[in-house]
Amino acid sequence: xxxxxxxxxxxxxxxxxxxxxxxxxxxxxxxxxxxxxxxxxxxxxxxxxxxxxxxxxxxxxxxxxxxxxxxxxxxxxxxxxxxxxxxxxxxxxxxxxxxxxxxxxxxxxxxxxxxxxxxxxxxxxxxxxxxxxxxxxxxxxxxxxxxxxxxxxxxxxxxxxxxxxxxxxxxxxxxxxxxxxxxxxxxxxxxx
Length: 192
What we know:
There is one protein chain. It is built from five helices and five strands, in the order βαβαβααβαβ. The protein has a single domain (3-176), classed as Phosphoglycerate mutase-like (Rossmann fold). It has helices spanning 30-47, 59-70, 99-107, 120-131, 146-153, and strands at 3-8, 52-55, 74-77, 139-144, 174-176. The longest helix is centred in the first third of the chain and has 18 residues, at 30-47. The chain starts with a strand and ends in a 16-residue tail after the last strand. It is globular, with a radius of gyration of 16 Å.
């Protein structure tokens, strides 16, 4: 399998305190998208990575891919890279979602579809399908979503519980699939 480099998208406008999933296509300040695209381009140059990036169609990821495309990269949009769909929770303030609904999800963290949307098991299935298509690429570069990245980081746990869920990466940070040798990442400042 190709090594995977995945950057969390820039901070979207209007996300603070809200449940944001695949049903919320929030905008990103163009300057943030361009800054992350520059960071990805620099890291790819340093590590000798291909100039190909994949994103979901949601603006918070796709806008970064569009900047890279302007600079000669190939940009692929794939719906399997979308964030978890939170159904009727999507876009709502977390304080508006009943505790009992959140508790029901925590009780069956992998199988329950929060807000009637998509379960983490379903997200893992579409993720596995995408990962199986590495083709002849030595490395795959992605601008992704926190839930998608955390599902990847925990895929080795067949019985996932809410307690196993890691803190999300900060906006604009990179996570790599462990195991393949590559140059060390340079420390980069977190996005404001």
